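User: Some background: our group keeps a shared notebook of sequences we're curious about, and every so often someone picks one and asks for a predicted structure to add to the entry. Today it's my turn. The entry only has the sequence so far, pasted here. Could you supply the structure so I can complete it?
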Amino acid sequence: MARPKAPEDADAYEACGRCGEHRPVAARWPDGLICQNCYRKAIRTSGTCAVCGHVGILPGTADDGPTCRTCSGVRINVDCVLCGAEDELYSQGRCWSCALSNYVDTALSAPDGGVPAQLEPLADALKRMQRANSGLTWIRQDHVQATLRMIATDGTITHEAIDELPKSRTRDFVRGLLIEHGVLPRRDHYLAAFSEWLTQIPNRVADDEHRRLVDRWIRWSFLRKFRAMDEVPRNAFLLAKQSITVGVDFLNWLTEHHVTFVDTTQGDVDRWLTSGPSTRQFIDRLIPWAQSARLINRDLIVPRHRRGTAPRMSASDQASVTERLVHTDELSPRDRAIGILVLVFGQQLRKSLELRWSDITVNEDTVCVRLGSIDLELPPPLDAPWRELLAEPVNLRTASHPSSDWVFTGQSPGRPIDPGHIATHLRDVFSARAARLGALHELSKLGPVPIVAEALGYSSETIEAHRVDSGSTYAQYVGAVRRQRL
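Assistant: Of course. Here's the predicted structure to add to the notebook entry:
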């Protein structure tokens, strides 16, 4: 986050020789008094001098571009006493990179005083960060240093050893860095998160018999299926947590009302469902499983969640929001690109955020995005955010994403942006779910179901469901075409 500017005060300060604003003065250079903001900007400007070709810090200004200290006559100390590079200095004559290297060596030192060989890839990655100031801000925090020291002094680094550390966002972030830089092997992120979340479940079940029931249910209905997957999807992970939480609440409710699970009646189920929020219908995962296992009355009925009841954005609202996305600079290129995927192509946030640059083709004339098995060309101005993202990638200057192919890199190492985070971030502009359903409602009318499904990366059944809802079936489409040919 940029440092806020000091308020202007024309009575207290003379005008800056560069920006003309009246703010606290940092230096007097050949072009006049220099305010603190212009001073910081000058010492952070690097490149090739427009006059002599010197490569380094360019604090001066000229008609042809920034100039070096010699050509501009600006006298500042930007020579690191350790590495000799020209750079903004952090403290004691050291540049930010050298200061960061010192903190890294200290935090990752084993009892013998050196960085363990297993942690050298992580140490090197942290030291080579393009944004050394961001690395310093992070590693100087006490809880970060404590976590790194625990890992460095623990001996062999394994996922199991990391699991034994106090649970925290810092621990998980460092684990991500260890995975991204090859210290730890990759593992199924959501399966691991689910397994860790399950450790708290036994303590949340009030009755011993119910505790054994929940353990059996989880192993059969969730863990067995998750372990058979190549990778657990985020939606499946969230649905499993919701279902288990509601199932546990239902069992505890039975305990409070002195009802055993095997003796549960339809009246008990109905009282539970009608005396709380609609999320209580998520017992539709527990009850059917128990019925198939002959653990409960097989005549019990739990209403299933009805599809098609979620709000849907109207076509006029879609057009209005899309206009806002493509014709204003109100949102960042990242947010505009994500919005286009949802509003124009009816894409799920999760799928949109998992796009890689290998799915995108950008050349001088066209931008194409592969959502299904077909490359979809984005006409102007829909192509603009993608060109901007390619020119200035986000989150690639730290150790979290040293060589990431994700289009929408997130804060977690090696992972894209979390869908929940971006949905909340964009909520003031549009509801991602309502926008997606509205887009699919309109897109399902544009052509044969198989073609629309193939282009958008959906199943034919999904597109057909939206088409039926919109009042236009594929059979009607075929009939209309035949009539036109007659």
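Suggested note for the entry: The longest strand covers residues 25-29. DSSP finds 23 helices and nine strands in the chain.
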